[in-house]
Known about the structure:
By secondary structure, the chain is α/β, with parallel strands linked by helices. The protein folds into two domains: 3-198, Rossmann fold (3-Layer(aba) Sandwich); 233-427, Rossmann fold (3-Layer(aba) Sandwich). Helices cover 41% and strands 13% of the residues. It has an eight-stranded mixed sheet with strand order 3-2-1-4-5-6-7-8, with helices on both faces. α5 (96-106) runs parallel beside α6.
Amino acid sequence: MxxxxxxxxxxxxxxxxCLCAEKGNKVYGLDVDKNxxxxxxxxxxxxxxxxxxxxxxxxxxxxxxxxxxAECIPNSDAIIICVPTPVDRNNSPDLTALMExxxxxxxxxxxxxxxxxxxxxxxxxIEEIAVPILKKQKFDAxxxxxxxxxxxxxxxxxxxxxxxxxxPRVVGGVTKEAAKKAAEFYRSIIDAEVVxxxxxxxxxxxxxxxxxxxxxxxAFVNEMAQSFDRAGIDVLEVIKGASTKPFAFMPHYPGAGxxxxxxxxxxxxxIEKAKQLGFHHKFLLLAREINNNMPHYTIExxxxxxxxxxxxxxxxxxxxxxxxxxxxxxDTRESPAxxxxxILKTKGADIFVFDPHxxxxxxxxxxxxxxxxxxxxxxxxxxxxxxxxxxxxxxxNKILAVIDGxxxxxxxxxxxxxxxxxxxxxx
Length: 427
């Protein structure tokens, strides 16, 4: 049994902590959120996720959560940092939480400890930021005083098939010994392949490439959706057709915007680092521009439908379904729903919001109240509660138009009820 401390008990850190504890390790969780600490110490999940709720409830040896690094760091054989790495208002990487975490750890860590960063970072972060912080405390990572490695997190909230237990992982270390120790650690807790890369920079770049790949492809299909819409072509039908090709095509789907802590953030980390190195990512910037514009495009679709009714958006009663960035989770990080709401406010609409998975932000108590108060609907999140709703309620509540921002509703059924419908690339 090893003693492991997970720094940051959010969407990444908490599943890792549960997995480490489940494998028989003594696990500490270090976090600054006192409410989160209190809940976890009661074996309750601060995140509305069935997987985590079940794991915490059934752990034989629970997670000891604390806000004091002196309580856990000196006793740990391995420390895993899973703190957020967002961007600021200018879309520049904000590594404040990471730097503060490494600094706090460095003051209590003992020689020979394995220190792994799972937080998403740009290539060079470990060697340019983390290693110098350790150096201030007289630890030389290049001499293996501390075994420093990076293993980019791979968590997909709400995904029942691919979990922290069975997703393959990639590791890279400041030294070969650090990479080997990190790989051995992950092999002891997961049932999947662990690939050792030749450098820590390569590992840092891996996560950035994975999510930038998705961002670029989503931008491509978002642009195709807008083009096909003008041509009177249903983009979902085209994707279905293209997906019959058994090679070289991978389906991606359009939507009202890209959210989450990964796809909407990670490209900026690579863009900024490349800029420092004298390279300009035109393609990546264009993808970000296209995807960032999708909430505006979604509102344009609503205004177009309202013109058919000779109505304007100012003073219109608009219901927004969903605040989470993806289906069936409570994660609102970078959710395009907030931008949709802000645009509606700017245009003077009267807005009603409901999300069955998100505790804060709704001003309607349930779906029925939202439909009753609204004349127009924008579906921003494809929660199962919305996908499976009784569509006759739309007619019953005299909804005039539906903008399906996730293309998950029955277009033909809605139209046959005399309600205007428009999806993303589905007129």
